[in-house]
Amino acid sequence: MTTPTSPLSAALEPLLSALAATAAARDRAGGTAHHERGLLRESGLLTLLVPAAWGGGGASWSQIYEAVRAIARVDSALGHLFGFQHLLLATARLFGTPSQWEPLWKATVAGRWFWGNALNPKDTRVTLREHEGKLVIDGRKSFCSGAVDADRLVVSAIEERTGKLVVGVLPPDRAGLRILGDWDAFGQRQTDSGGVSLESVVIEESEIWRSPGPLGTPFAALRPLIAQMVFVHVFLGLAEGAFAEARRTFEGRPAGSAVDPFALRRGGELWLSVLATRALAAEAAHALDEAWTTGEGLTAAARGRVAVAVAAAKAQATFASLAVTSGFLELTGPRAVARLEGLDRYWRNARVHTLHDPVDIKLRDLGQHALLGQFPEPSFYA
Amino acid sequence: MTTPTSPLSAALEPLLSALAATAAARDRAGGTAHHERGLLRESGLLTLLVPAAWGGGGASWSQIYEAVRAIARVDSALGHLFGFQHLLLATARLFGTPSQWEPLWKATVAGRWFWGNALNPKDTRVTLREHEGKLVIDGRKSFCSGAVDADRLVVSAIEERTGKLVVGVLPPDRAGLRILGDWDAFGQRQTDSGGVSLESVVIEESEIWRSPGPLGTPFAALRPLIAQMVFVHVFLGLAEGAFAEARRTFEGRPAGSAVDPFALRRGGELWLSVLATRALAAEAAHALDEAWTTGEGLTAAARGRVAVAVAAAKAQATFASLAVTSGFLELTGPRAVARLEGLDRYWRNARVHTLHDPVDIKLRDLGQHALLGQFPEPSFYA
Amino acid sequence: MTTPTSPLSAALEPLLSALAATAAARDRAGGTAHHERGLLRESGLLTLLVPAAWGGGGASWSQIYEAVRAIARVDSALGHLFGFQHLLLATARLFGTPSQWEPLWKATVAGRWFWGNALNPKDTRVTLREHEGKLVIDGRKSFCSGAVDADRLVVSAIEERTGKLVVGVLPPDRAGLRILGDWDAFGQRQTDSGGVSLESVVIEESEIWRSPGPLGTPFAALRPLIAQMVFVHVFLGLAEGAFAEARRTFEGRPAGSAVDPFALRRGGELWLSVLATRALAAEAAHALDEAWTTGEGLTAAARGRVAVAVAAAKAQATFASLAVTSGFLELTGPRAVARLEGLDRYWRNARVHTLHDPVDIKLRDLGQHALLGQFPEPSFYA
Amino acid sequence: MTTPTSPLSAALEPLLSALAATAAARDRAGGTAHHERGLLRESGLLTLLVPAAWGGGGASWSQIYEAVRAIARVDSALGHLFGFQHLLLATARLFGTPSQWEPLWKATVAGRWFWGNALNPKDTRVTLREHEGKLVIDGRKSFCSGAVDADRLVVSAIEERTGKLVVGVLPPDRAGLRILGDWDAFGQRQTDSGGVSLESVVIEESEIWRSPGPLGTPFAALRPLIAQMVFVHVFLGLAEGAFAEARRTFEGRPAGSAVDPFALRRGGELWLSVLATRALAAEAAHALDEAWTTGEGLTAAARGRVAVAVAAAKAQATFASLAVTSGFLELTGPRAVARLEGLDRYWRNARVHTLHDPVDIKLRDLGQHALLGQFPEPSFYA
User: Fold this and answer.
1) Contact B351/C343, CB-based, under 8 Å?
2) How far apart are alpha carbons C267 and C257 in whole angstroms?
């Protein structure tokens, strides 16, 4: 079984080796992966989405997701942060005006910025109001992936005057903004997905992305699909990484030794779910590439077709990652259960990450399309 | 939900309408679909594999399988016969010499030949021996799809002298050859997959394909993969055809009426299995196209990679077709159970057809590759 | 593998042999099983529920369901009618007063009555109104199992005055009542589940069961649970009957011949679902026996506990019957697909019968109880 | 949803509360649960199997397993040790003579002995040989559950002279015996399932159980079934314990708040697998009770019937425990992922414990019985 080689492989290889060498230990330690975040900054891969003309990687989403998946195979927490870097860059692009996002993208190249997230739209405790002629944000967000050690934060708030969600950008050292660093979950441990507290944090109007704004056009509404695809590729990477552990067990067996046919059958069953995920993820990434290239002219129907492809990939990836990260342990040898080997982390990571939003809704959306011809209603999850 | 349009659609459309109109009735009747076989002959689609320069369709395998699947959606028995037409043409190409297969392909165009099958390699009761200076075949074959009303038959026999399987071609009116027309199964009823009896049937040496012969080279060993892919696309067509029946139920509902969320979720679950099959089938067809184009220089490893892709598509298609052809009935209205509607035929067809060779072997082959890096041993089923 | 022997075995054995001998042929023929209904009448088994003191069988529900399941193993259509016989007797008992149901039970013994059904509560097109001092029923019912050749019919109607459902009994020769005999489904073909037309059919007040009436008390609300348990045991019988066909294939193999381990594993997988169904069905039947014995004093909570046990058995039986009646064909030899063997009828019967009411609702009810501690709301399906 | 109350509840309740209060913390800590082992010794529950006449609990296996399951709900590591206590007592009873096992049982009561295990029969590195007139054991065992802090150890070795497995008992302080205390797995962390090293350890002939010896009679061959049933009840307890965490989430919701129907459906799906496991486990425990009571006269067929019931319960429990300990997290609120809550430990415990022996073999054994009528070959796993 050969994994398809990637055009980015050369840039990725040393990073992957470094991450793999310490992934189990860092899973035990938790906390912020300062050193590894540094490696990502140095790799230049944080600007894959930025045009080559501006010094970025000029990569397609398909290529970016290939990198997400490759990183997730060895370290799904870092894979997630790496994927969200590009999601947050895309958020500026999709919700803001060119005079907003273009300087941010260029500064990201110049400053090797790592972006973090304080956006969780389910968490409506953060408000934006006018106070003494200034726009002020107050409240507390949870699940702010990558907030620690970030150079810029994407924040959201409910605007008191309109009751609407607004999204914008803040530097992490803005007065009143405090990143709590309190993430201590049983999986995805180094994603720094803890809380952010905002007390009378001033945000400039120019830092708020109002045009077209959150989900303001079909094109802007690609944002949740880009996010879902990060999940798809982290899930896929987890399944592939876990399966690779099983493969290593077999590589070590004495030459010519017989292999239990039931184990081969079980391995095939698990692997089939990986192959199906790969195929659906590739189709969805291709559809997204096209929609991204289309730009502002993207129609609701064209966006809808991407959404359906993404929903299919997401549901399949969810099932595959949960099945493989638990089932591969039936195929590994006795070292499988040793705590220091950390082979349980694949399931822990997959389980925490797949709780993000419920797979039954994805199945419902798929059924709604397949049976009724309706596209998913754009939201922060579909 | 839109089905991807096909370049062959124009040629196919009238045929599909004609088949669909009578499919349920012909399923009840069983027997040979003389009229519909005539429509296929007239459509020109029986020569899709033959180069355009020789008057054929000049189609790729991907295109041929798209046609198989489109036909199978409305009539999986005819879809199977249509697929086997191309398999049998390919058998001549792969097992024989140019001086053997080229005239046969040209005659197929000229004579609008429909090919039939008396090859079932599991059935070893047919022998080839020398008798008074002639090569003579004796015995009986079962499961000879498309043998009735065929213009040419591909036959196999065990050569007494060598104990090896030989494969060749016979006209159906060769003395001693009798097509029994005794197929009466609960599914795939119009595939004419009954018995053939051979009593002292003379075959010329030139009619036997000895070079490279059955599975004689990696390229020749594409034959079983081409066969498996016919199954994949018949299964896929069955799942799609069944699902379309459910969709029709919903099309008829009062505008604006609410739909049970559990039904949508279930529909999505079933549809996901169809989408995964589509994606894996497309990948396998693409791999086969490449291998076919490579020709005699195909390496064992390159052939192996196709075999793995085909095994994955086959396993997935098996699961999807069985799940959807049974499960879609949970989504249809009360007409679902009416015998004359014949909605049970999707499962009956899928069930009979998926019994061809066991899916556990496909999973084992997949596991063997994914865990041990080994390709499936070429055989008439892998 | 031995099937647990039943105390009723002796009475059942000749009946089962007779039904088995013609089941495949009668499945093809469809229509009313007059001869076999006669055998059931003669067997005395139609009065199992009636106390021995009144000349009945004096059986528990567990014993009755054991008989349903034994019959369903060889003929699930007759198994259903046999189960509904007891359901309809129970309906009189549960919805009516002693002065209503006692004479009916005694007449059933005396007259060897076979009861039929025109009750389908989903079908609300039938009304009851006062007309010239008489109570008159008008309308049309579908899915009236066992209506043809019935000695008494249980009917339901919506009372115009109150908008409520009323249930009562009619002789089939009452003026204006017409049994259409139009059932022609792809499964459960001899259940006579067609339509009944009622035109100005007079019903006496004494024939209407108003006290406690439909679901009028927790005890009366056992009725839908008794109905669901008929389904459970028909499903279970179908799964067992199908599995027995696979077992027969293996009985015929040459002594000492090896058996494919994958086939054994698959057989075990299917059989496990049967064993789980048996265990849950037995628990539910035992719970029902206790509730039945409790009588009118049954509390809502005690009824609720039975309902949960029944929901579990029903969901498991649904999954098992669909899985086994399709999957056993992977374990049978080549005769499996012959139309005249009729081995597809197990799935056809299971598929039609499991469409009665959706299994997702059963799962929801189970979850509601397991997570929230709530019992299913009594209805005609739970 | 109420869990059936147990006759042992009174004795168990304080123990369960104590274990539950610290289970998550002790899972993090790993190592030996000295304090909790002390509670078990004090509870008197370690002698449940011993006749009341000798001061024991006089319990049936069904009752013992009910206690195993209750403990496993809150602490599956301790549940396992508790179950193995009784397995090891049973091993003396089944493999030894009355003059061997009776004193051991009485001493267990008198000394509040906790038994440990150095028996792993897959691990054949330990030998027994005669040396200078003494019987001497040498080698190393892995997976010796409960060896640390044990009062007696059951050991096995391959006898050099005969090549056969012998099983006997040793005090933990016998010269040359060293308990390594090196268990550090990602699940079942406080089972002390590490290594034992034996260097020239003298064992008396009277300490070896040769008559009837390991699997020496059908009755003696109940030993592996008793072991498998410990696993069944630990798995079941894990599933029930995990599900109870989900239930607690819902208990905390605002009164009258709506619950997502998809969540209820999913809960029902998971709970159904628990109910099926309960039912099959109860049947198997009952069968074992009968066989245990039968004693030495147990026939191979009667033993075989227990083995089949145990195989079914084991396979079902495996599937249910893996499904529920992963799936319940879809039903819990945001606290689900907090590391200190330790809700991942249910899956970690289930995953490690279900790796003991492969479930495919159980399915094969079931299929072998259901299709061929053969009982599982007695072994240390069936």
Assistant:
1) no
2) 17
Cβ–Cβ gap C275/D312 under 8 Å: yes
Distance from CA of B311 to the nearest CA of A (A): 9
Helices D345-354 + D9-29 axis angle, to 10:
90
Nearest CA in chain D to C257: D372
| Chain C residues with CB-CB distance to A265 below 8 A | 262
Please give the single-letter amino acid code of residue D8: L
Q: Check the CA dihedral C138-C143-C145-C149 and report its sign.
A: positive
C280–D283: do the CB atoms touch at under 8 Å? no
Alpha-carbon distance of B147 to C309, in angstroms, equals 54
Residue A36: CB atoms within 10 Å: 21
Specify whether the CB–CB gap between C121 and C165 falls below 8 A: yes
Residue C329 contacts residue C346 (beta carbons within 8 Å): no
Query: pLDDT exceeding 70 applies to what percent of chain D?
Result: 98
Task: Please say whether the beta carbons of C56 and C93 come within 8 A.
Answer: no
Nearest-angstrom CA–CA distance, C44 and A37: 81
What is the rounded average pLDDT of the residues D255-261?
A: 89
Report pLDDT digits (tens) over C161-177. 999 999 999 999 999 99
Nearest to B344 among C186, C260, C329 (CB): C186
**Tokens (6 digits) for B193:** 């997959």
Whether the model clears a pTM of 0.90, i.e. scores above it, the answer is yes
For residue B262, the chain D residues in CB contact (below 8 A) are 261, 265
Please state the rounded mean pLDDT for residues C211-224: 98
Q: Residue B332's closest chain A neighbor by CA?
A: A371
Q: What Cα–Cα distance (Å) separates residue B58 from each residue in B47, B99, B183, B199?
A: 8, 20, 33, 38
DSSP string, B237-294: HHHHHHHHHHHHHHHTSPTT----HHHHHHHHHHHHHHHHHHHHHHHHHHHHHHHHHH
Inter-chain CB proximity D371 and C280 less than 8 Å: no
Name the packing angle between helices C300-327 and B300-327 (round to 10°).
140
Closest-CA distance, B18 to chain D, in angstroms, reads 42
Chain C hits for B322, Cβ within 8 Å: 326
The ipTM is: 0.96
CB-based burial label for B339 (10 Å; 0-12, 13-18, 19+): middle
A268 → closest Cβ in B250, B271, B363: B363
d(CA C367, CA C361): 10
Chain B residue numbers with beta carbons less than 8 Å from the beta carbon of D265 are 262
Backbone angles phi, psi at D154, to 5 degrees: -90, 125
Separation between Cα atoms, residue A331 and residue D284, nearest integer Å: 28
Does the distance separating the beta carbons of B351 and C329 come in below 8 Å? yes
- Residue B130's DSSP bridge partners are B135
Touching subunits of D (3+ CB pairs, under 8 Å) are A, B, C
Of A118, A171, A112, A172, give the one whose Cα is nearest residue A143: A118
Nearest-angstrom CA–CA distance, C67 and A116: 67
* C133-170 exposure pattern, b = at least 16 Cβ within 10 A, e = fewer: eebbbbbbbbbbbbbbbbbbbbbbbbbeeeeebbbbbb
Q: Which residues of chain B have pLDDT under 70?
A: 1-7
pLDDT digits (tens, 9 = 90+) for B188-237: 999 999 999 999 999 999 999 999 999 999 999 999 999 999 999 999 99
Token pair belonging to B167: 């494969």
Name the residue facing D315 among C264, C272, C365 (closest C-beta). C272
Question: CB neighbours of B174 closer than 8 A, spacing ≥ 6?
Answer: B201, B202, B203
Is beta strand B152-159 parallel, antiparallel or unpaired with respect to A115-118? Answer: unpaired
Q: What are phi and psi of A111, to 5 degrees?
A: -100, 5
